[in-house]
Amino acid sequence: MEITAYTMEKITDPTGILTGERYEFRLYITLDEEDELYAEGGTGIRAIFAVDGDVEKIASAYFFERETENILDFELEEEEIEAILAFCQNNLEA
Prior knowledge:
By secondary structure, the chain is mainly β. The chain has one domain. The protein is 15% helix and 44% strand. The protein has 1 helix and 4 strands, in the order E-E-E-E-H. The two termini are 21 Å apart.
């Protein structure tokens, strides 16, 4: 899995219930054609990155088909979540 592009947007909690800040990252990835997650129109990962004081974590993340925005029914593996967390931490200020 290689991240080729991304977008980031700060999310506003209209209810004021959530503490800290939330950011939506859309990571656009390239995969081998043999990979079961491969889609002709492209595959992406939508991740909600939460920052609350010194705590930074991935609140949610899932794969999606870029062309249709359909969610793909695959779980992210632990090392993928760790890689996404590191990516979000490194690109929050960008």
